[in-house]
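Please go through this protein, sequence plus structure tokens, and consider how the sequence yields the tokens. Keep your notes short.
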Amino acid sequence: MAPAPSSTSSAVTLNINGEKHQLTVDHRTTLLDALRERLDLTGTKKGCDQGQCGACTVLVDGRRAVSCLNLAVAAEGREITTIEGMAEGDRLHPVQQAFLDLDGYQCGYCTPGQICSAIAVIEEHAAGWPSAATEDVRPEAGPPPLTPDEIRERMSGNLCRCGAYVSIVQAVTRAAEAHDARAHDVEAHDGDRADRYETTEETAA
């Protein structure tokens, strides 16, 4: 049974990886500590504890966040995804698979944060968000090519002390290509369905 809230604590419900968790936490408890110490979700790593290394990166409402700088009470009502929620059963997320195939890690300590960040990077790029490395930031220019320079800039908030950066860039590149291919297949499938619908309407007329 969770302890009763006091003047310095609150009862919160955290939606993590599609499951709701009810906790009573001190108002000063970070999301990182709630994940690791209260919920035993230790895939999210504590590195610098100052928001500089990116090892604690998770997704909050689909956007990346360093959980060491976010309070647990502020995360109530948000959709939180940690590294434990990326795979679908035994099927790895494409970014996880790319990191595995291309050795985008060494000791692996920073890898959960790298993977969470990479997933968000790919979505941000697909949505047309520019980075400091983007040459043409006009909205009408569309998403810039996801070059190694773009990936390095967009992933620069995640540090790897082992220096596996070359493999990480390769892994993000492969996962982004797979993401683009899936998006193209979905668009083509939707287009085929629309064409069939129009043909059916013409036949009926």
Notes: The mean pLDDT is 91. The longest strand covers residues 9-16.
